[in-house]
Amino acid sequence: MFKVTFSFEDGSVVEAFANAGDNLLEVARGANVAIDAPCSGNGACGKCRVRLKSGELESKKTLHISDEEYQEGWRLACCSKISADVNVLVPDIASAYKSRMKVADLSSKEEIAIFENAKRDVELAGIELKNSLEVVDVTMDPPSLDDTMPDNERLTRALRKYLNISRVRIPYAVLKKLPDVLRESNFSVKCVIRATSDDMFVYDIFGKDEDVVIGGLAIDIGTTTVSAVLINMENGEILAKSSAGNGQIRFGADVINRIVESQKPGGQKKLQDAVIKETINPMINEMCKSAKFPKNRIYRMCVASNTTMNHLFAGINSDPLRTEPYIPAFFKTNSLFASDVGIDINKDAHIIMAPNIGSYVGGDITAGTLVSQIWNRPEFSLFIDLGTNGELVFGNSDFMMSCACSAGPAFEGGDISCGMRATDGAIEACTIDKETMEPTYKIVGDPGTKPVGLCGSGIIDVISELYICGIINPKGKFIREGKRIKHDKYGMGSYILAFEDEAGSVKDVEITEVDIDNFIRAKGAIFSAIRTMLTSLDFDVSMIDDVYVAGGIGSGINMQNAVNIGMFPDIPIEKFHYIGNSSLTGAYLMLLSTPAEKKTYELASNMTYMELSTVPIYMDEFVGACFIPHTDTSMFPTVMEEIQNR
Questions:
Q1: Could you tell me which of 441, 439, 445 has the C-alpha nearest to residue 422?
Q2: Is residue 370 predicted with pLDDT exceeding 60?
Q3: pTM of the complete model
């Protein structure tokens, strides 16, 4: 047994123990040390860099570590095995991924406005903001020698009389509290109940003087990240919010790799534990601690996630999703409760799941469609959710069609050498001077924060600027030279946004030709999906009235730059609207409003799903889209005009 010490740049230390031959990355994750969670695990991405301070590691040389860096002690954790006691430095860009995920400021007017606007929009659409949970005051006559009715029947009789409902269910957790609470409050109590027309379920019981808030949890389980809000179910007030990296990412950056991993012995349980025990439950602890809110007073939860994440979350075999005919175990289910999957809230809490509509279009899209309101307008609108998978919905109040494409994790910073989530130090916007090639950028964080990497919106800006300025060609290869352009010994070019002495990390912040190529394929998947879906309907891009863009790509996205690189169609910019994390907002609405929940089920049942892999023209469209902006530049007239005028 060897001791492994993880040292951080802020001076903190985490210690763990490992056996000879254990993989360093797995040891780190077992100790909850986030050595850049997007690592692909095979040395291909170069994202899990550590530096030896003392000791020895069995570590192979990789392309991502130069000879000089190797001599200085730099290693990739995924390619290193424990062979002795070791002390490694975890660089700031790595530890930021999970431990310093940017969490929205709930005092921000912009953050509050997202949810307030969503509530307003659904109410204007005629959807009532009302759910079946409530707190009721109940007073009973105390028992006596003349009235020896047991406590549970006494409470049941009082509740029946109060709400005129014949069936009342009292679970074990309430029954266990019942004798003490009734007598301490002299048989005058408050009950948290779920009431329907013919059924009542009692979630909890309190003394009459207790200030009771009904808690609800809305959660977006993304392939790369998980976001959640804790709310007051009576008025929709947000009590706390949290974001974190999805713990499953160590099993693969995309859903296919995770499905494969889940089929190994014990794999299904590992994947479920990674998202629940390692990710969601710690987030719940964090939110409840910050809001001073008891976890067992969260009585309902709504999950919006893609179809694979739904299955892995529920611990259900997801393997049929990846093979023809791509059949999930469920599209919709109302049979899940917190105790079934180990969610650390009230054990009887019902878990609502936004419905899936296809093997690769899930509840995150149906929830997002609810928020986008395209179902409530006669105009033709396109809804795009940018994430590890790119999902699209096109239609209006008469029809809707959806499809999904595998974009990879590039939009969220994965597969990019300096890619990262929108945490402190991420470059989220950038311009480049055409003559000097000097960058000007905006960084997430407090004034004075140094850059450590690029988030999705920053990557789009940088690639657009490099192309418009004539620094790279349509294939993403560097065609100009200067102090910001460098080439490694293999001839691969890169553009340096911040030199090591300017950066907040231990190396240059740069974007390489490999990074650009990865991003070109990701944006190509999006554009080709748009074209394929429109063509199948005999539409063209000129018929799109509005485009609603969602996803955790950053604080916003420069739509013109997204058009410049050929990710979005070349239509007037005023038609584009960024609506943030619509999956989380949709889950919030479904949680708060039973009519909104039912509306989402209705949207899912009325939406046509197109499997792109079965459409012959899709691959041709994809190949054509793997250039900047496209092989057919006539589809991007404003981009070509900007190049000429700049």
A1: 445
A2: yes
A3: 0.83
Q: What is the C-alpha separation between 562 and 572, in angstroms, rounded?
A: 12
Cβ within 8 Å of residue 468, ≥6 positions away: 434, 564, 642, 643, 646
Question: Rounded CA gap, 108 and 110, in Å?
Answer: 5
CA distance 85 to 290: 38
For tokens 């795009």, name the residue: 384
Contact 378, 396 (CB under 8 A): yes
Integer Cα distance of 577 and 565 in angstroms: 18
Element (H, E) at 405: strand 400-406
pLDDT tens readout for residues 119-145 = 999 999 999 999 999 999 999 999 999
H or E segment and range at residue 308: helix 307-314
Question: DSSP of 116-184, one letter per residue?
Answer: HHHHHHHHHTT-----SEEEEEEE-PPPBTTB---HHHHHHHHHHHHH--SEEE--HHHHHHHHHHHHH
Look-up of token digits 């974190």: 244
CA distances to 117, 346, 349, 541, 601 from 338, in Å: 30, 7, 5, 44, 21
22 or 413: which carries more pLDDT confidence? Answer: 22
Model confidence over 393-416: pLDDT tens digits? 999 999 999 998 887 666 766 677
Which own/partner contact pairs does 406-409 have at CB distance under 8 Å and 24+ positions apart? 406/254, 406/256, 406/360, 406/525, 407/522, 407/523, 407/525, 407/526, 408/253, 408/254, 408/518, 408/521, 408/522, 408/525, 409/38, 409/223, 409/224, 409/253, 409/254
Closest CA to 202 of 160, 170, 172: 170
252-261, pLDDT tens digit by residue?
A: 778 888 999 9
The rounded distance, in Å, linking the Cα atoms of 51 and 342 is: 37
Res 530 pLDDT > 80: yes
